[in-house]
Amino acid sequence: MKALDLKRQVSGISFLTLTFFLLILPVSHLYSQDVDIVSYLKQIESGEKSEVEEKLPGLKKDYPNSPSVMFLEGVLTQNGQEAVTIYTKIVTHYPYSKYADAALYRIYSYYYALGLYDTAKNHLNRLKKDYPQSPYIKIAERNIPSENEFSSGEQKPDEKKQLDYKYTIQAGAFGKLANAQSLKKDFEDSGFFSEIKEKVVGGTTFQVVYVGKFVNEEEAKNFLQVINSEFKLDGRVVNIE
């Protein structure tokens, strides 16, 4: 499926299929004070999304630290960028929870749907590394293109070429290298490409952290919203020098 077609499937529960719900049933025990959300996921699959939305505030109140409830909220969230922020919180803070691999798979799906193939691939590789037994690995591999297509978006294997990356995100500038390295590590731990470059402004040397590489400005702006929300930053889109 082409990226343009996939973009129409980003929001809400468009990534979910019946297979997805069947896969989550036999998973092991929940976190302490967690709640079983399988019945709610089945309701969503049956078209009873509004009923589950009405119950979500109560679940969040009764189980404020439940990664399962967080996952349910992500499934119900219409804005794809906000959903990714929720899923990232699950993967980062509750990596051993019941839906951590499902959350990581949905992050991968979101970036792939936007056409951010390098970022998507980083998350798929993380899924394989951190959750090697996850059934979502096979699902992802059945739906992704070849290695050449993953790199270029549309090309056939004999048409592979280097992408012309023109934009990146300037995430922060620091006087201390250690602070820049810390942010860079946070990005890389989340599966994002990141680098540090020195920049002299008014005689002062700054360590500037960049994250992501993009062919067009629209992709960069979409990614910027996710990064700013996820990492509480005030980044901006800049041209790659």
Account of the protein in words:
This protein is α+β, with helices and mostly antiparallel strands and 241 residues long. It folds into two domains: 3-152, Serine Threonine Protein Phosphatase 5, Tetratricopeptide repeat; 167-239, Sporulation related repeat (Alpha-Beta Plaits), CATH 3.30.70. It has helices at residues 3-7, 18-23, 38-45, 49-62, 67-76, 80-93, 100-113, 117-130, 136-143, 147-152, 177-189, 217-231, and strands spanning 167-174, 194-201, 204-214, 236-239. The protein has a four-stranded antiparallel sheet with strand order 2-3-1-4, covered by helices on one side. A hairpin with a 2-residue loop joins strand 2 and strand 3. Helix 6 runs antiparallel to helix 7 (100-113). Residues 1-19, 25-32 and 146-161 have low confidence and may be disordered.
Shape descriptor: elongated
Strands in their spatial order, largest beta sheet: 2-3-1-4
Structural class: alpha+beta
CATH superfamily of the largest domain: Tetratricopeptide repeat domain
Helix content: 40-55%
The third-level CATH topology of the largest domain is Serine Threonine Protein Phosphatase 5, Tetratricopeptide repeat
CATH architecture of the largest domain: Alpha Horseshoe
Largest pleated sheet:
4 strands, antiparallel
How much strand content do the residues show? 5-15%
Give the radius of gyration. 19 Å
Number of domains: 2
Name of the CATH first level of the largest domain: Mainly Alpha
